[in-house]
Amino acid sequence: MRTLAIYSNKGGVGKTATAVNLSYLAAQAGVKTLICDLDPQSSATYYFRIKPKLNYGPKGFIKGGEKINKAIKGTDYKDLDLLPADFTLRHLEAAIYKFKHPKERLKKIIKLFEAEYDLIIFDCPVTISILADNIFHASEFILVPLIPTTLSVRTYRQLLAFCRKNNYDTGKIYAFFSMVDRRKNMHMELMAKMVKEYDGVLRSLIPYLSQIERMGIDRRPVAASAPESVASKAYRNLWVKFQKTALANKRF
Ligand SMILES: Nc1ncnc2c1ncn2[C@@H]1O[C@H](COP(=O)(O)OP(=O)(O)OP(=O)(O)O)[C@@H](O)[C@H]1O
Ligand SMILES: [Mg+2]
Q: Disulfide: which of 75, 90, 148, 203 matches 187 by Cβ 3.0-4.6 Å?
């Protein structure tokens, strides 16, 4: 079972839009996929039209076991299931500390899904504390949406510094450009600079597109509702590029 986190320590950069579309594209290729919504905002859950009825709270979630297994819902798409989130997950970080080896709880609880799924995609909330440690331990790959702006790039550098300091393998961190506006010089210049500077920055971009914003109305991955759209093609390219690069690095 492969594990991929769509993660950033910056908010509103396109994590959920990416997690929803990549999980759909993986499933469409026959990869049995579980999208795991870790965010109390529960946006991924919303996009897949699922109303969670979680009866375990954050402590029950991080304890793992049959209860969370039962909470998994099928989506409208073949080979794609979802572990939903709800607002109670806002207490997740506090709950994690109550367990032994708190940094490895997530890694432990997803073992339950090994027989059932080929791929888990985590849709992550903004965090750089204990939940981030859990995400880094549990994930083989971290994919970071990077808006080509000064602050977003700065946050990415902070993330790499944090990982180096805490002995997390930075080789498993990949980034791609998100919400790109090719008419902006700054976007173009920063993208060129970042691909030169970092091996892990993929030559792949998702443009700023209203088709993607509309997912909030359609409540479907744009790759499903408009498979031939520019947005859908961009997510397909990203998925192919990510897999190729990870393969070339003998990692996928
Ligand atoms: N490429 C894009 N073009 C236009 N709008 C986008 C794009 N990607 C995401 N959006 C929109 O921007 C908003 C934030 O996107 P999204 O929820 O995916 O970000 P996020 O990083 O998951 O945010 P959060 O940190 O709150 O979880 C949403 O309204 C989404 O529809
Ligand atoms: Mg999100």
A: 148
